[in-house]
Amino acid sequence: xxxxxxKQAIGIFDSGIGGTSIWKEINALLPLENTIYLSxxxxxxxxxxxxxxxxxxxxxxxxxLIKKGCKIIVVACNTATTNxxxxxxxxxxxxxxxxxxxxxxxxxxxKTGVIGILATKGTLNSSLFEKTTARIDxxxxxxxxxxxxxxxxxxxxxxxxxxxxxxLQKYVQPMIDLQCDCIVLGCTHYPYLIPQIKKxxxxxxxxxxxxxxxxxxxxxxxxENNLISTSEKKGNSIFYNNKNKNVLDAILKEYQNTTIQFxxx
Length: 265
Ligand code: DGL
Hints:
By secondary structure, the chain is α/β, with parallel strands linked by helices. It has helices at about 5, 20-30, 50-65, 80-90, 105-110, 120-125, 125-135, 150-155, 160-175, 195-200, 210-225, 245-250; strands spanning about 10-15, 35-40, 70-75, 95, 115-120, 140-145, 180-185, 205-210, 235-240, 260. It has a six-stranded parallel sheet with strand order 4-3-1-2-9-10, with helices on both faces. The protein has a four-stranded parallel sheet with strand order 6-5-7-8, with helices on both faces. Helix 2 (about 20-30) crosses helix 11, helix 3 crosses helix 4 and helix 9 (about 160-175) crosses helix 10. The site of D-glutamic acid has 18 residues, from helix 4.
């Protein structure tokens, strides 16, 4: 075990603030770890970009976190994972954890045999997503819905706006009409919409995201690589953001040991 490395931070990145939904799960499961979170809000949304652009941005984010001395990278973005994780794993030796829409979980839990997935165009069009879907029982009907406009509203802190309600109604109602009983949130920004989605679905539809699974996988890989923190003190978290920091401020207000820094990135 290399004690120096154990003290280093878990690096986490997303196209914006959405990956803080993953950071919260990691922070809850691994409170002794230091974390560095990179929110590339200036370039959000990634979901409309080409695979080449998403790879380029993911490389830039990964190199930033490696330069900061991170011991592991968590790609807290479905769009970056589904488009760039193969490239990242081929080109960097640091352990890299990704997040993919939890359609396997939904396919096990559904009783009606109909599941909905809300994700970005970049995720739904990716070959990795196509491969994952091909492994799902063909008897399960999967309704794919691109969440156009949702990330932009969340980045601006408009989670509860009328515009958001109208968009969610438009995306979720057709799933309800087709008897879907599980909705997969295939974008790390979307857990911030769960209260609004529940206003439309009521409590009869399960909303599934992969946040806890990613935190558990991060812990597992840290242990496997002898990288888990041996500290007895709660860790510190630094959040780098290259756009407006107000929404991050609001998200993190109840968390101690967190600092937000503006980054010209
Ligand atoms: N949080 C990102 C994801 O999980 C948002 C994608 C975007 O920037 O469009 O896919």
